[in-house]
Amino acid sequence: MVISPTVKSPNPEEPEALKMATDLANKIGADIVIGTDPDCDRLGVAVRDTDGNMKLMNGNQTMVVMTEFLLRKWKDENRINGKQFIGSTIVTTELVGAIAKNYGVETKIGLTGFKWIAKMVKDFPELDFIGGGEESFGYMVGEFVRDKDAVTATLLACEIAAYAKQNGQLFL
């Protein structure tokens, strides 16, 4: 059996890596496409824009949407009490911090790399870690997997997509 690759690079940061999936999504009218890299730590999320075209979100956009969703959920569940934080890095959009501040949640900023976000969880055990990430197409949902993890991030993206669909909203 000969296995032929379908892409030059399976990097979900590259639109070409998800082209076959986004083409199929356009053909069948799907709302979202999610692809991961081979070791399943990064995810690419493509969603429909306001013109109905599938667009790959960048890592900052994905992090902003996921962070805002988690914060809203925690707020709706009355779980925000000033003892929570979001983790971010120096290469990530400052919008994440502005959103967290709007919810009364601190953003801790570390060096580039998820080991530094995971270290925040260890260094601040008195605080609840809600989520965190960086522009690298990775996200860490909660503290149970202390690294970027496309499995849990994909589940979160699907939850956000289902919520948006149920409420007549776009993912973005």
For the termini, the CA-CA separation is 41 Å
Biggest β-sheet description: 4 strands, mixed
CATH domain topology of the domain at 59-151: Alpha-D-Glucose-1,6-Bisphosphate, Chain A, domain 3
Shape: globular
Strand content bin: 15-25%
What is the element string, with H for helices and E for strands?
HEEEHEHEHEEH
Q: What is the CATH architecture annotation of the domain at 59-151?
A: 3-Layer(aba) Sandwich
Radius of gyration: 16 Å
Classify the secondary structure makeup into a structural class.
Answer: alpha/beta
Overall mean confidence score, pLDDT:
93
Please report the first level of CATH classification, the CATH class of the domain at 59-151: Alpha Beta
User: Which homologous superfamily in CATH is the superfamily of the domain at 59-151?
Assistant: Alpha-D-Glucose-1,6-Bisphosphate, subunit A, domain 3
SSE inventory with pairings:
Layout: H1 19-28, E1 32-36, E2 43-48, E3 54-56, H2 59-76, E4 84-89, H3 95-102, E5 106-110, H4 114-123, E6 128-134, E7 138-141, H5 150-166
Describe the model.
The protein is α/β, with parallel strands linked by helices. The protein has 5 helices and 7 strands; from the N terminus they run H-E-E-E-H-E-H-E-H-E-E-H. Helix 2 (59-76) runs parallel beside helix 3 (95-102). The mean pLDDT is 93.
